[in-house]
Amino acid sequence: MWKDTALRIVSALVGLVVFFVIVFMDTMALNFALGALIILMLWEVYSAFDYGWTFTIIGCVGSMIIVGVLSLGSVDYLMGALVIYVIFLVVFAVLGYRRLRFSDIAVMLFATIYISCFMMYVGRARYLENGLYYVFLIFICAWMDDTGAYFTGKLFGKHKLVPDISPKKTVEGALGGIVFAVIGCLLLGVIARFAFFMEVNYVALALVGLVASCLGQLGDLVASLMKRQCGVKDFGNIMPGHGGFLDRFDSVILIAPFVYYVAWAAEKLGFFILR
Length: 275
What we know:
The chain is mainly α. The chain has two domains: about 25-120; about 130-275, no CATH class. Helix content is about 75%, strand content about 5%. The chain has eleven helices and two strands. The protein has a two-stranded antiparallel sheet. A hairpin with a 3-residue loop joins strand 1 (about 160) and strand 2. Helix 3 packs antiparallel against helix 4 (about 75-95). The longest helix has 29 residues, at about 200-230. It is globular and about 60 Å long. The model has no long low-confidence stretch (mean pLDDT about 85).
């Protein structure tokens, strides 16, 4: 247990260094890094479903187009890209009907929308007023939830959460993840208040941490469900102790749009979280 824990901690520290370097760069660099991450995550999904090189490359190329369009920030461009992508998939479904089922096309389309569109909200959050803090908030919610769930589950976990999907997850771990996420959000507020003299709504931060933690655990379970159906333990092994890129960022996928729209609504409706 402790050897695996130490490996996870070292890997996480290296990942944090890379994360801070990317986040503090300009928004274009952040969007480029997000685009690369999204393609790698999709590659892992397509590989897990064993689509083969041809269809995996086709899926990733289509996803690259959508990611590029998303960075432009126009809904019309996005809808146009999705139409082209669907036509692209349908053509290859007809041409490769002996090797590719229609359900595979549905999986590829879902994965593209779920991962590409949702993950790009990290980049969109950066454009908000005080956007850097909201980017940190997204990852604090995700990673504190993961950390709390892991250690609480290891130490106190007795009651299985959803054993048919993820046998190792426990109710105690889930509750620990929520507590850690709320504490992480409040700590961000304390740092913003006393280090950068910002006005902080601690109640709103706590509520964001609570809901985001639940969404993060749901995203984790979605990834576990895909792995179970594909018969794989992890989506990859690029991050020792953490698995692949999707294993590490699965909880971010649902948290990113939630935090973005809460912050966006705060701007539009006149209340605040951080300012």
